[in-house]
From TrEMBL, chains A, B:
Residues 32-57 have a biased composition (Basic and acidic residues). One of its GO terms (molecular function) is aspartate-tRNA ligase activity. Keywords: Aminoacyl-tRNA synthetase, ATP-binding, Cytoplasm, Ligase, Nucleotide-binding, Protein biosynthesis. InterPro entries: Aa-tRNA-synt_II (IPR004364), aa-tRNA-synth_II (IPR006195), aa-tRNA-synth_II/BPL/LPL (IPR045864), Asp-tRNA_synthase_2 (IPR004523), Asp/Asn-tRNA-synth_IIb (IPR002312), NA-bd_OB-fold (IPR012340), NA-bd_OB_tRNA (IPR004365). Its EC number is 6.1.1.12. It catalyses: tRNA(Asp) + L-aspartate + ATP = L-aspartyl-tRNA(Asp) + AMP + diphosphate. It is an enzyme of class 6 (ligase). It is found in: Cytoplasm. This is Probable aspartate--tRNA ligase, cytoplasmic. Belongs to the class-II aminoacyl-tRNA synthetase family. Type 2 subfamily. The lineage of its organism: Eukaryota, Fungi, Dikarya, Ascomycota, Pezizomycotina. GO terms for biological process: aspartyl-tRNA aminoacylation. It holds the Pfam family tRNA-synt_2. It comes from Cladonia borealis. GO terms for cellular component: aminoacyl-tRNA synthetase multienzyme complex; cytosol.
């Protein structure tokens, strides 16, 4: 590991980060010109090196066995191509294989012997380059191998052999790879801003800072996100993103099975609803447009167009200047909307069963469990311990019952019965429900009318309440849903009571949908990033987001 | 059908449409106030009517059998609930059923007898309301039924019976429904801007205008899109959108089977790439941001982060002032990116097999064929006649071969071998390939370097060409793809040659990804809307889009 720098600080200065989004300045242009000059010099140097290498190669018996990878239409692997490094465990001894993976470390033992650790995620194998042999491996080749920068990608052909003794430093312990050919596919630089291996554990809390932990440097969340391409190579970080992929596929699977149609809403709207607060404004040719805040209106218009059951997987944009561990300006929404036959609890039950299906699959399907185990092994304290209700019977309480539970446990829930439960109380409630009902997933039903948007259907039996619900995982909200108002007059009245004009440009098409006749319906919008965050118990939603966006981050 | 207006013109004036996206004017506010007054008057009138109705009800033996639908937590259907109207064909005679669907038409035969046509998409059944019987159905109830506005949604409980003779005007011919109870779930107004039934055929060409066709009024595409909620109820229009849903599910199915990870790119970027042309600018708190033009950079960064195979289903934004039948400012991209082992044709073959899988499924799976048949029956001339290559063996020609084919058929392909094939020639080529190779789907490989973006990998054997390809359906492009440059120096050089600065804010994170080492890779981006458009042979991509956006349309 000698070639890896000790410091995990990014190469780039903070000043440069801050310039994100600005137009290229004079100094940037100057810098670009300088860079060009540098590149030309580098090219010249490369050429010289190439010539020197060619000279040396005249005395090199192995010059055809290593060096830059050259692709031709006939370039085929000379050994059996192993797609996943982990599969090496399953091949027979003495098999000739070809692999393509990263160099995790190099060690030049002597002029006659080099060792490399070749890796792909959690799978690693030791590769041995030894002088002589059938191939007549040269000292030049051994030197070249010992000098490969870590994180470079190489293609190796060689023989799978049993080592003298079991190798303890790699995941594949029973084999090593005796290199016959090694070509450079993609060369990494000598210095990287952060190291992959320093990202394979939970990022430090703000108090911990960039502290070394158990002998490892632990890169801050900011450092990881600034250098996403490198931190993503850390197996735990990649597993988190892959688990998000699983949730998307599971959502699609469940929706398809239940005859939902996958629709594409529009993300551009001609007028801002709700007065423009929380909505991003766009220059749209000669006029303005807005990024929609949610696909709510489009889902409901599809229902009014008789589509019965629709679902969406797409971005949700929020122009909210919130800088918390669970807010982003852009996240992924898993939305569904369905007609109701008799009672809005049909929708609530459907949503509960959907969530139980997804979480149960994450806990039981081998491909998901594999990912959870990687994350758990990397030291995430809550990964793998998520509790579903016994017998998969969803636990559902009303808003009033939730407040009562909090009060009985000594929490100050205020005088007003309609006052919201705050974030801290929500978390406390999560703990109360876990101890009473043994589940980390539950729903709260029947929220007060004052707390819900204008399109939420009132409770016909109590005008102060609504037919609405939130879903929770570990005491934190992952979904908001409700029966929606399908009666045009009631909708207009409700909007006016909330100070909105049902005939305004931004609402007209939406309200018309109900004027033209619409079936009773309800639905919900799940936050994909939050599902992953709370299932795994991650501290920050950014960890569960491939390229997070917040008021201060617009790159990479 | 007497209650349906003869005109299909929208109620709203064109002037109002043009105000899309503008801030509410004084006249709009005045109008809103007027509207409020109107609503209050209407409420008063409703109250009076209600009182009158209650009076009349005192002499009405059937007053509990009809009227507004009232929901209570115990409201359950009194008959067997039939979810899909088409399922009525399968029930036994004399079954008591409950259905909820739209009133397509009403006919008051006499004071003692009313007929209704109840419909759901293409499925229709005749409902009979006759005086007397066990329920003591009253003349008031019959009058009420005869006066229901079409497109209203009603809940009916009644007996399924054989009619005296087969009914020719409904899709269910062997049964009629003898109404015992009928409640109003959602009332449509007397006048609608367009009629559902006038949208169930291809929209008129510009030459045809809003002309009557075979006795039906044919609503223009603009009229349909302005009133999407109504036109979407037309079974052919809904089937087109449902077919789009099938393509999304099929894409996900194929990707999952081939171990792709479903990633979420960001749609917001801090700097505009390629100089900002074609990119929408956003106000982002105190700074600016841009809507990404494609997920290209994010897909490639995921590959550089060792994700191997990634796919995306999401919006693509293009700030291009194109007003054609195949361009939108927002469409859905089905994107994939994968590492390459030996040759970029691995990616090309994968893409071809993906498309053949999707199209073959659309042609053979019963749920898809059902949709194609609805569209075909509605008179779309090319629906259902799409040709796949014999034996599902993809037809692949090079750009040079394509030009040669055109030249041999007498087309002027210009002097320059590197000159692009224009849209008209592409269509002609589609016809040539159909006649020669009997396929509507094919690919063109090896485009000139001058025609492709900077990240396209050059052809190692010919510096004028690239390892890139387009996919075509019926002579029109549905996908662009290529091997991408994974070598940092080559990428920077290529960017500089195209006048781009690899170190500019908008590129820095992207180019760094390759500096840190990246495996060879390639991919493509399919246009979901175009796949549906060209598979069905629709004239305009807007027909294959639920809520289309173009330079002149930002609503509904």
């Amino acid at each position: 590991m000698a070639s890896q720098p000790e410091s995990s600080l990014p190469e780039r200065s903070k000043g440069e980060q801050g310039a994100e989004g600005a137009a290229p300045s004079k100094s940037a242009l100057k810098k670009a010109a300088k860079e060009k000059e540098k590149a030309e010099k580098a090219a010249k140097r490369q050429q010289q090196e190439q010539q020197e290498r060619e000279k040396a190669a005249q005395n090199d018996t192995a010059s055809h066995l290593y060096g830059p990878m050259v692709y031709s239409s006939s370039s085929v692997p000379t050994g059996r191509y192993i797609e996943d490094l982990g599969d090496l465990n399953a091949v027979e001894e003495e098999t000739k294989v070809t692999i393509e993976a990263r160099v995790y470390s190099t060690r030049k033992q002597s002029a006659k012997l080099s060792f490399l650790v070749i890796g792909e995620g959690d799978h690693t194998i030791q590769a041995v380059v030894a002088e002589g042999g059938e191939q007549k491996i040269s000292r030049q080749m051994i030197k070249w191998c010992g000098g490969i920068n870590t994180e470079s990608i190489v293609r190796i052909t060689g023989l799978v052999k049993k080592p003298f003794e079991e190798i303890k430093s790699t995941s594949i312990t029973k084999y090593e790879l005796h290199v016959q050919e090694i070509f450079m596919v993609s060369e990494a630089p000598e210095q990287l801003p952060i190291q992959r291996k320093d990202c394979n554990q939970p990022p430090p809390t703000e108090e911990e800072g960039n502290a070394e932990k158990e002998g490892l440097i632990n890169v801050s969340l900011k450092g990881r996100l600034d250098n996403r391409v490198i931190s993503l190579r850390a197996s735990a970080q990649q597993a988190i993103i892959e688990l998000q992929s699983e949730v998307s596929f599971l959502f699609a699977e469940y929706m398809r099975k239940h005859k939902f149609k996958w629709i594409q809403p529009s993300y551009l709207a001609g007028a801002a609803t709700e007065g423009g607060a929380g909505v991003f404004e766009i220059k749209y040719f000669e006029t303005k447009a807005y990024l929609t805040q949610s696909p709510q209106f489009f889902k409901q218009m599809a229902i009014a167009g008789d589509m019965k059951r629709v679902c969406i997987n797409g971005p949700v944009f929020r122009a909210e200047n919130s800088n918390t561990k669970r807010h982003l300006t852009e996240f992924t929404g898993l939305d569904f909307e369905m007609t109701i036959q008799n009672h809005y609890h049909e929708v609530l039950s459907f949503g509960e069963q959907l969530m139980i299906f997804i979480i149960r699959a994450l806990q039981t399907r081998p491909e998901c469990q594999h990912l959870v185990n990687i994350i758990k092994k990397a030291g995430y304290p809550e990964a793998g311990d998520f509790q579903l209700p016994p017998g998969d019977e969803a636990v559902r309480i009303t808003f009033a019952e939730a407040k009562k539970m909090l009060k009985e446990s000594g929490y100050d829930i205020g005088e007003d019965e309609m006052e919201d439960i705050d974030t801290a109380q929500e978390k406390a409630l999560g703990a109360l429900i876990l101890s009473k009902h043994h589940t980390d997933f539950y729903t709260i039903d029947k929220y007060p009318r004052t707390l819900r948007p204008f399109y939420t259907h009132p409770d016909p039996t109590n005008p102060l309440l609504t037919n609405s619900y939130d879903f929770f995982m570990r005491g934190q909200e992952i979904m908001s849903g409700a029966q929606r108002i399908h009666n045009y007059d009631l909708l207009c009245q409700n909007m006016r009571e909330k100070g909105l004009d049902p005939l305004a440009e931004g609402f007209r098409h939406y309200t018309d949908a109900f004027r033209y006749g619409c079936a009773p319906h309800g639905g919900g919008g799940l936050g994909l990033n939050r599902i992953v965050q709370f299932f795994l118990g991650l501290r920050d939603v950014r960890e569960a987001t491939l390229f997070p966006r917040d008021p201060g981050r617009l790159a990479p």
